[in-house]
Specification:
With 429 residues, the protein is an all-alpha fold. 78% of the residues lie in helices and 0% in strands. It is built from 14 helices and no strands. α2 packs antiparallel against α3, α10 runs antiparallel to α11 and α12 packs across α14. The two termini are 40 Å apart.
Length: 429
């Protein structure tokens, strides 16, 4: 196991520190926004600005890499992001925060593309699954740990924004001092969304809806917490629970994914997540029940995204995966922009607990559509499906494509082994 990560440990460490900074800043927006008396609708626009920048960065970074190389792109984007995190404290206005979030989202997306290019280049077909899983864990642990760091300072001052900037700056060291230049990122034209929907309707629709859910949870969760009167410690625990659940639930959902009709599992997961969101809405001021609802609903979100990607791969030909990966990331990004805007509007029109109702409604729409799709196409036998590999919703098209290729390779390997076993059994008879 140690030899597998000997070439990527520095990259993993750097990503962990980047996620410390990014995770801190996500929650800080909600905490500081409440102090600055921003409305839920204004903070929703700020949140959507990040995902608009993220989507733009995913499309433009490969072009930058081709022009100047991975190292320069990573260093430049990291520097801009570090500066932007400090700049939040200079002018507390919704429009300026939206522009800064647009910049941070662009930089963060570019950092992902660059880092994941290095990661994919260092991996082999034999260890890619383990490396991508470790990469996902490093990111998630970074976000969770970031919440603990927020309890060490005061959101009303500049100290926590400065700390977030420092974490991003520190991340440069292990990455830039140890990695070797990777091949230039390939630029694959995304599959048109109409064609993608026609080839993988449930996967495309589900990824769009999960984009809305993920952006709402990660971007509006702290806004919800501050508006219902949670303390800073309670808000950061609430955000941590949204991500901690994914670490616990990814394995059982992935295990089931390889053994049953994935559409049925998508349906069950969506119904359960919707129910947990209704629980969050119903429990009101019961803080521990809120934490439980966050853990369970957030815990389903990330594995469900990976499950939708796996199901989409089941319906696609291997040669379609590169173009489809770009289309799925684009679809996710559109949903991520829309979700917080819808949630912020609902919270303004009714009350902060509309946060839960919009999430519950989105999961319910996914459940209904999954049930409908089960009536339109026969189930793919479990032995003919691609292997499940957990992928974070923020993954670049490169990782989505790499995960799909690994899953197909694992599936082919399993088929070959089954054939060998079957042939051996026949010879014995």
């Amino acid at each position: 196991m140690g030899s597998i990560f000997s070439n990527v440990w520095a990259l993993m460490l750097g990503i962990f520190f980047i996620m410390l900074g990014n995770g801190m800043h996500f929650t800080l927006i909600g905490l500081r926004g409440e102090i600055e008396a921003f409305s839920a609708a204004e903070l929703a626009v700020v949140t959507s600005g990040y995902f608009a920048g993220f989507l733009l960065g995913a499309r433009q970074t490969p072009l930058l890499i081709r022009k100047v190389g991975h190292v320069r792109v990573f260093a430049a984007l990291g520097s801009f992001m570090s500066a932007a995190l400090i700049a939040f404290t200079l002018l507390a206005e919704p429009w300026s925060w939206t522009l800064l979030r647009l910049l941070v989202g662009f930089c963060m997306s570019g950092i992902y593309v660059t880092a994941e290019s290095w990661l994919n280049d260092a991996a082999t077909n034999e260890n890619r699954g383990k490396i991508l899983s470790a990469y996902m864990i490093a990111q998630t642990l970074g976000i969770i740990t970031a919440q603990a760091l927020l309890t060490l300072g005061d959101a009303a001052t500049a100290s926590l924004f400065i700390a977030a900037s420092i974490m991003v700056s520190i991340s440069f060291g292990p990455i830039l001092l140890t990695v070797t230049p990777a091949p230039a990122a390939e630029i694959t034209r995304s599959m048109p969304l109409g064609k993608l929907f026609g080839r993988a309707p449930l996967g495309t629709t589900g990824v769009f809806l999960l984009g809305s859910v993920y952006a709402t949870q990660s971007g509006m969760g702290a806004v919800f917490g501050t508006q219902i009167g949670l303390t800073t410690d309670q808000v950061v625990l609430f955000i941590a629970m949204l991500f901690a659940g994914a670490l616990v639930l990814q394995y059982p959902i992935g295990w089931l994914s390889d053994r049953m009709d994935r559409r049925g599992l998508i349906l069950i997961g969506s119904v359960l997540a919707s129910g947990f969101c209704v629980l969050g809405w119903a429990v009101g001021d019961s803080h521990w029940m809120l934490m439980t609802a966050a853990f369970l609903s957030g815990g389903i979100t990330t594995p469900l995204y990976a499950l939708l990607l796996a199901y989409a791969n089941d319906t696609l030909e291997p040669e379609e995966m590169p173009a489809a990966s770009g289309g799925l990331v684009l679809t996710f990004g559109i949903g991520a922009i829309i979700g917080p805007l819808l949630t912020g509007w609902a919270m303004e029109q009714w009350d902060p607990f509309a946060f839960w109702l919009t999430l519950a409604g989105t999961f319910a729409v996914l459940a209904v559509y999954a049930a409908y799709r089960m009536t339109r196409r026969a189930a793919v036998p479990a032995e003919d499906t691609e292997s499940y590999l957990n992928v974070l919703p923020t993954a670049s098209p490169l990782v989505v494509e790499a995960a799909g290729a690994w899953s197909a390779d694992q599936g082919d390997g399993a088929d070959a082994q089954s054939t060998v076993r079957g042939s051996g059994h026949g010879n014995q008879v």
